[in-house]
Design goal:
Blueprint lengths: L8 H10 L5 E2 L16 H10 L2 E4 L15 H15 L4 E3 L19 H11 L3 H28 L15 E3 L4 E3 L26
Parallel strand pairs: 1-2, 2-3
Antiparallel strand pairs: 4-5
Helix pairs in contact: 1-2
Length: about 210
């Protein structure tokens, strides 16, 4: 499955033009709601609609506001409803990024928050049918469609392209910023962030 959450807008557009299968943005928000490089522009959202893919709204504080401590659940819902209103409830989901964030939003600290979040989506005006799509039906549909295309390409003996271009720069996230990856093959045991994981909590004191 093609995940475009960490690529540039140009790369996302090129992938959407070339792919035969639906794509996913596993943890990205709407650039028109908050202008962050990781968020998805309206033109790319429209391409996701044509592709029958999915954009999964994330709870990363920096993807909803400039200052982490100002991030709220309502801001996350703003992105969810913007995407749903622009391209439809069939093409949006939830992508918390709990396994990859260095700080969290109040009331969205971990998976125990989901009942509260789902209720908030209903309270804002989504129907039960729309909520079911967001909570899982949409990503399952995308997954099944990708498997179908995979099987068709396999039957047609289409080989994957696994080239790595010369001079590629690999990057690693250190918990705060992107940095050049000193160990692309993970031989040094640097973990996800390139530094030892925090001993307690995920909150960053500013």
């Amino acid at each position: 499955m093609i995940d475009l959450s960490h690529v540039s807008e140009d790369c996302a557009k090129e992938a959407l033009e070339l792919t035969k299968a639906p794509v996913m943005f596993s943890h990205s928000n709407a650039k028109s709601v908050f202008d962050c490089p990781r968020n998805v522009s309206d033109s790319v959202l429209d391409m996701v609609l044509a592709n029958h893919g999915i954009v999964m709204v994330t709870f990363v504080p920096e993807h909803v506001t400039t200052r982490r401590k100002d991030a709220t659940m309502d801001m996350v819902l703003d992105h969810l409803f913007y995407i749903a209103n622009r391209i439809g409830w069939d093409f949006v989901g939830l992508g918390s990024d709990f396994d990859g964030i260095a700080s969290v939003i109040q009331d969205l600290e971990d998976v125990k928050c989901y009942p509260r979040l789902l209720k908030a989506i209903l309270d804002r005006g989504a129907t039960e049918e729309q909520l079911a799509k967001v909570a899982g039906e949409n990503i399952l549909r995308v997954w099944k469609d990708v498997v179908k295309i995979r099987d068709e390409m396999s039957a047609a003996r289409v080989e994957p392209v696994e080239d790595v271009w010369d001079g590629r720069t690999w990057w690693r996230y250190d918990g705060y910023y992107q940095m050049p990856d000193p160990d692309p093959k993970d031989k040094l045991g640097l973990d996800w962030y390139g530094v030892p994981p925090p001993e307690e909590g995920l909150y960053i004191k500013e």
